[in-house]
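Note to self: keep these together.
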Amino acid sequence: MSKLLIVGTVAFDAIKTPFGETDKILGGAGTYIGLSASNFGIDSGIVSVVGGDFPEEYLKMLNDKNVNTDAVEIVKEGKTFFWSGEYHNDLNSRTTLATELNVLADFNPKVSDEYKNAEFVMLGNLHPLVQSSVLDQMETKPKLVVLDTMNFWMDNALEDLLNVIKRVDVITINDEEARQLTGEYSLVRAAKKIYEMGPKYVVIKKGEHGALLFNEEHVFFAPALPLEEVFDPTGAGDTFAGGFIGYIAKSEDISFENMKRAVIAGSNLASFCVEKFGTERMENLTAEEVQNRLVQFKELTQFDIELNS
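Structure:
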């Protein structure tokens, strides 16, 4: 069985959308990635940090999903990372109301011996120096390293970000971030510039408009499934990333053709995430639901057309 090492926040969120709002609930990139990847029956472990205020039941829930939390450090006298945001009517834009780093401010990740030889590594959205530190601790070169990042690090830690980008195989960012990182409006040109930074594959997420996968001259597009109801987009990008790396870790195939399937797998799982607030939908997802929606994706994207010879 493949091993997947995940680094990312395990945190609290408070969310407001046009459809309602929550108090502090479970969130964090590492949480969403782990819950998503757990659908593929692989051995995964999270490296993260929480405070003494973090409920043990949340860690137990992840363990029950076969996500190892032994490397989630608990700082008993500290508080867990907290983010609060309000989504606007189109759900594509949001306003951050509060960001409290708390124990994350001094986070020094420690990879457990059990995962220092993991074949697959998912570097969730964190400070680039934290991401680099995890790679430094690996005892064997992973088969595939995927990195997720955001515009905040482009604004505040660009040199560190460029250094870690050199070391990864795949980068996943959204369209706005790809344009900021490269200064190119065309996503095709942006992807080409990102290749020159190091990664062999570039995944550009476009929210409700799907995702693009680039590899040299090859391009693949996966649509997002049209949904009747979207309650909360929080964590959808991380859920996509978890589905993407989870599918690849399960199949142990890092070819471009298989990455195309992985993009569909990630899009499929992200479509569930947005249906409830926070992690609620992902916690209760069944294998049958995942399979049935995969059929919908296939019907959405598969067609026959006669080509002139």
